[in-house]
Design brief:
Low-confidence stretches: none
Order of helices and strands: HHHHHHHH
Strand content: under 5%
Structural class: mainly alpha
Number of helices: 8
């Protein structure tokens, strides 16, 4: 379950990172750095935090997936399209990445024996850590700090996975249901412009 969530997240965030990089008119090196940071940065931070060899450094698939997605996007000339960051493909890929990495981060934390606080922190770090690093190097306010319901979805996923673990019902079926429910919630929140106002 962890590897499935990890691979889906890598594919989705590779696309997301590519779109952000091309929107900022970065050169090829900049696109490579932004794409790799978005797709793999959060997972590396997570694994270092739990004192594990980063998944990216012990398996060849993550880097191969990022390169393959990058080549396909360039081949189909997505870098020449305007304002793609606000289109359905970007929103869907970014939302899938958010949900997948939140799940993989929470699963690693549960496997490492973390409490609820640790599980929430690992889900959040895995999901948004790479995106924050990307936004910092391109001199933008991190996306997660500008929209109130983005990181909230990650936190909700972590809490639900913790509850499933406590109840001993962390099954593939339940995690699949959680994935689609969280993805639906994120998409509804985006298009309905939900936020958590500061009053």
């Amino acid at each position: 379950m962890f590897e499935i969530a990890e691979y889906i997240g890598i594919i989705a965030f590779s696309m997301s990172g590519f779109f952000v990089a091309t929107r900022n008119k970065l050169d090829l090196l900049g696109v490579l750095v932004a794409t790799f940071l978005t797709a793999l940065g959060g997972g590396i931070m997570r694994d270092v935090t739990v004192a594990k060899i980063p998944f990216t450094f012990s398996h060849n698939y993550p880097a191969l997936i990022v390169i393959s997605v990058l080549l396909l996007l360039i081949l189909f000339k997505f870098h020449h399209r305007n304002s793609i960051e606000n289109r359905a493909l970007f929103i869907l890929s970014d939302s899938i990445g958010l949900v997948s990495f939140s799940i993989s981060g929470a699963l690693i934390a549960i496997q490492s024996g973390f409490n609820l606080t640790g599980i929430v922190a690992m889900a959040f770090l895995t999901a948004v850590g790479g995106g924050i690093a990307r936004d910092v190097i391109i001199n933008e306010v991190p996306f997660v700090l500008k929209t109130g319901f983005y990181g909230t979805v990650s936190i909700l996923i972590a809490i639900i996975l913790y509850a499933l673990h406590v109840l001993h019902v962390t099954t593939y079926t339940n995690i699949s249901i959680l994935f689609f429910a969280a993805l639906t919630l994120r998409l509804i929140a985006y298009y309905a412009k939900w936020s958590i106002p500061l009053r």
